[in-house]
Write a structure and sequence with these properties.
single chain, alpha/beta, 5-stranded parallel sheet, Rossmann fold, 33% helix, globular, 24% strand, 10 strands
Length: 202
């Protein structure tokens, strides 16, 4: 059965770098999602936030893993946060891959060096809160933890993760982020994604 992975990233800044990650992974038995036509995204965004949520949720359907490509501003992008939290709600495997060492052709064309340091770990900025057998979502915003209400809560039994006994935890306590070097790690992407899938029982 083909592995179907959703790639989440800051579209304006990091689409070319994210393509490098995807291309290192895609083979005959692997299917990607998340590289949709930018105009379709913009149309859904213009229509309404709810339409955009439905659009992104539809792209997540049928996927078993979400791979977050971590650039400079990925952690702060609201729709990346939505894709991550919707993936958690659906019990998908998750992982992050840093883009520091992936050269950006767009940057080179502008006369820049072609690299950009990755920002904060997106999984440090999002979390899970437990209450009476249900899970709700929190985000780090303006220096404090606040509810993330864009994704509905779920029963704790509906997700496959081992949450321990804490009443609240960051996603970084559950999901790994990897440093990626294109010259030596291109064969590792598949294993990292498989590890994430197994972690979620996928």
């Amino acid at each position: 059965m083909a592995r179907h992975t959703f790639f989440s990233f800051h579209y304006v800044n990091d689409v070319m770098r994210a393509q490098v990650i995807k291309n290192a992974w895609v083979t005959q038995d692997r299917v990607e999602s998340g590289f949709f036509d930018k105009s379709a995204f913009e149309k859904a965004q213009i229509e309404s936030p709810d339409n955009l949520k439905r659009f992104l949720t539809s792209k997540l359907e049928g996927t078993s893993v979400t791979c977050v490509c971590v650039g400079a501003q990925t952690f702060a992008r609201p729709w990346v946060r939505y894709e991550i939290m919707r993936s958690v709600q659906q019990g998908k495997g998750l992982l992050g891959v840093k883009l520091d060492q992936v050269k950006c052709a767009q940057s080179v064309k502008k006369g820049l060096i072609g690299y950009e340091r990755s920002g904060a770990n997106p999984f440090d900025q999002l979390g899970i809160r437990r209450n009476d057998g249900r899970l709700s979502w929190i985000e780090w915003k303006a220096g404090k933890w606040v509810p993330f209400s864009e994704v509905p809560s779920v029963a704790e039994t509906d997700v496959p993760y081992q949450l321990g006994s804490k009443s609240a935890l960051k996603l970084s306590e559950l999901f790994a982020v990897y440093d990626y070097n294109p010259s030596i790690d291109h064969l590792k992407i598949g294993q990292w994604i498989e590890n994430a899938a197994k972690h979620a029982g996928r």
